[in-house]
């Protein structure tokens, strides 16, 4: 829908057409996306309820897992639910405000997830490399400070992205060739210069996620060095088991993100549907895997879930 003004045509809402070359068949993707969404929401709610109910899980590491689950739930409800509504009910229109609100959530909460992984890596680093200091450093106040750090850091760094996009003059097409209100997908519809938008997104993403990834890998290098120096085979096995699930999920999170970035940069060499699908999956697969992997690999969570279902 558009409304005329003195300077031409002013866009008041956008139309999300998802996969431009798959308009007749794209709804079949809901067969994959819908079960994954249900799994992601159910697994995260079970994890949150288990941590809330089980007193033995009221520890900093599990509070960080709870923060991760809350971020995952919000991302799923904000992004994937809209995609399914497009597939099932052809609800392509999204209001001007709604589009930039979705853009804000995506650009802010994904880096928040990355920062949560960083704090969790620091928790494991202190636990394994400096065990005598662990109880004096990793306390409930640490979780509070970490939560403030995660929110403030990423909010300040990512808020300009949707603000810069919303300030552009949208006076022509309102058809977004994407399933979600991604910054560049929307900004390129404007009549103005979007070089600043591209530059800021590039710098903010690599500064936030890039620095997180470097620090996480560095912390695990220290952890691996300490673990390899341990004489006890049981200690090595326990440490690797504790950190293994965390590292697997982190590598999956960043690998999928990097693949999306590089395929998006490849432009016309790769079909446009590929980066769109990767972007959607990046908002769905990690939220589905995170609580499941932690639930299976962490004995305390597994026992808490079993106890919950017994009751």
From TrEMBL:
<keyword id="KW-0716">Sensory transduction</keyword>
<protein>
    <submittedName>
        <fullName>Olfactory receptor family 56 subfamily A member 41, pseudogene 1</fullName>
    </submittedName>
</protein>
<keyword id="KW-0472">Membrane</keyword>
<keyword id="KW-0552">Olfaction</keyword>
<keyword id="KW-0807">Transducer</keyword>
<feature type="transmembrane region" description="Helical">
    <location>
        <begin position="28"/>
        <end position="50"/>
    </location>
</feature>
<dbReference type="InterPro" id="IPR000276">
    <property type="entry name" value="GPCR_Rhodpsn"/>
</dbReference>
<dbReference type="GO" id="GO:0071396">
    <property type="term" value="P:cellular response to lipid"/>
</dbReference>
<feature type="transmembrane region" description="Helical">
    <location>
        <begin position="205"/>
        <end position="227"/>
    </location>
</feature>
<dbReference type="InterPro" id="IPR050402">
    <property type="entry name" value="OR51/52/56-like"/>
</dbReference>
<feature type="transmembrane region" description="Helical">
    <location>
        <begin position="239"/>
        <end position="262"/>
    </location>
</feature>
<dbReference type="InterPro" id="IPR017452">
    <property type="entry name" value="GPCR_Rhodpsn_7TM"/>
</dbReference>
<feature type="domain" description="G-protein coupled receptors family 1 profile">
    <location>
        <begin position="43"/>
        <end position="294"/>
    </location>
</feature>
<dbReference type="Pfam" id="PF13853">
    <property type="entry name" value="7tm_4"/>
</dbReference>
<keyword id="KW-0675">Receptor</keyword>
<feature type="transmembrane region" description="Helical">
    <location>
        <begin position="62"/>
        <end position="88"/>
    </location>
</feature>
<keyword id="KW-0812">Transmembrane</keyword>
<dbReference type="GO" id="GO:0004984">
    <property type="term" value="F:olfactory receptor activity"/>
</dbReference>
<dbReference type="GO" id="GO:0005886">
    <property type="term" value="C:plasma membrane"/>
</dbReference>
<keyword id="KW-0297">G-protein coupled receptor</keyword>
<dbReference type="InterPro" id="IPR000725">
    <property type="entry name" value="Olfact_rcpt"/>
</dbReference>
<keyword id="KW-1133">Transmembrane helix</keyword>
<dbReference type="GO" id="GO:0004930">
    <property type="term" value="F:G protein-coupled receptor activity"/>
</dbReference>
């Amino acid at each position: 829908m558009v409304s005329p003004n003195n300077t031409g045509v002013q866009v008041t809402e956008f139309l999300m057409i998802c996969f431009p070359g798959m308009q007749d068949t794209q709804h079949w993707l809901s067969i994959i996306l819908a079960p994954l969404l249900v799994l992601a929401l159910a697994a995260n709610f079970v994890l949150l309820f288990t941590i809330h109910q089980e007193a033995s899980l009221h520890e900093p590491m599990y509070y960080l897992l709870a923060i991760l689950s809350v971020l995952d739930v919000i991302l799923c409800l904000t992004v994937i639910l809209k995609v399914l509504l497009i597939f099932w009910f052809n609800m392509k229109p999204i209001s001007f405000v709604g589009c930039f609100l979705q853009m804000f959530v995506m650009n802010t909460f994904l880096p928040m997830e990355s920062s949560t992984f960083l704090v969790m890596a620091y928790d494991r680093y202190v636990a394994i490399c400096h065990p005598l200091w662990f109880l004096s450093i990793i306390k409930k106040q640490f979780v509070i400070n970490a939560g403030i750090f995660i929110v403030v850091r990423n909010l300040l760094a990512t808020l300009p992205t949707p603000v810069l996009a919303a300030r552009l003059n949208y006076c022509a097409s309102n058809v977004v060739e994407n399933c979600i209100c991604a910054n560049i997908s929307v900004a390129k519809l404007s009549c103005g210069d979007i070089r600043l938008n591209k530059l800021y997104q590039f710098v903010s993403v690599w500064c936030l996620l890039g620095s997180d990834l470097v620090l996480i890998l560095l912390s695990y290098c220290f952890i691996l060095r300490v673990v390899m120096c341990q004489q006890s085979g049981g200690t090595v096995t326990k440490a690797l088991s504790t950190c293994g699930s965390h590292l697997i999920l982190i590598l999956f999170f960043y690998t999928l993100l990097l693949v999306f970035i590089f395929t998006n940069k490849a432009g016309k060499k790769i079909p446009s549907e590929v980066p769109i699908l990767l972007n959607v999956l990046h908002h769905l697969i990690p939220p589905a895997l995170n609580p499941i992997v932690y639930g299976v690999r962490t004995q305390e969570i597994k026992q808490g879930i079993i106890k919950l279902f017994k009751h």
